[in-house]
Amino acid sequence: IKKRKIKIVYIGRLKKRKGSLVLVDIINYFKNSNDIEFILCGFNNDEFYKVSKKQYQNVKVLGFLDDVKNVYNEIDILILPSFHEGLSYVVLEAMANGILVIANNILGVNSLIKNAYNGILIDNNQSELFISEIKKTISNKKLIYKYSNESKSTAKNFDRDFFLKEYSKLLYSIKYK
To answer: pTM for the complete prediction?
Structure first.
């Protein structure tokens, strides 16, 4: 029986404020791991090499994609080592697909993720804590699915159709009071 690799995705620009150096630390730690494949979206190989200064066997750089739906069908974990976010669509999309999100504990992100309930929050964007959580997941793959239902439920609250229906009800109730 062939053991399936854990697929971890990063979707975003490769900028310091998006945690690019933390991302490279994480990838570098797992560079010899046969258990993990990193999938990177939002930049090309040359841009990644400028930051990482290395080539990695277990990294697939997909470049900029107009639609990441197919990526979500293949992955287990989304990592978001960003230092600054608003309401993160990447996190919402991952959660809507039942993907485990491991993210820096920052405003915006922590309004979506409740630590150890529907995802994992990392304090102070520490590479070591991201690595530790990924290692836990490799050794206990059930953790990937543990948060799935809760994350899907959270994402539904931000669904545009759901929001518009609820907003219409609110406006109607105010108008006819």
So the answer is: 0.89
- Tens of pLDDT, residue by residue over 20-55, are 999 999 999 999 999 999 999 999 999 999 999 999
3-class secondary-structure state, position 166: helix
Q: Are strands 36-41 and 59-63 parallel, antiparallel or unpaired?
A: parallel
3-state secondary structure 16-78: HHHCHHHHHHHHHHCCCCCCEEEEEECCCHHHHHHHHCCCCCCEEEEECCCCCHHHHHHCCEE
Q: Extract the tokens encoding 50.
A: 């400028």
Q: pLDDT tens digits, residue range 103-122?
A: 999 999 999 999 999 999 99
Q: Give phi and psi for 112, each to the nearest 5.
A: -100, -45
Distance CA 136, CA 125 (A): 17
* Assigned token pair, 134: 């990924």
Q: Given the structure tokens 């490769």, which residue do they identify?
A: 14
Give a three-class secondary structure readout of 98-165: CCEEEEECCCCHHHCCCECCCEEEEHHHCHHHHHHHHHHHHHCCHHHHHCHHHHHHHHHCCCHHHHHH
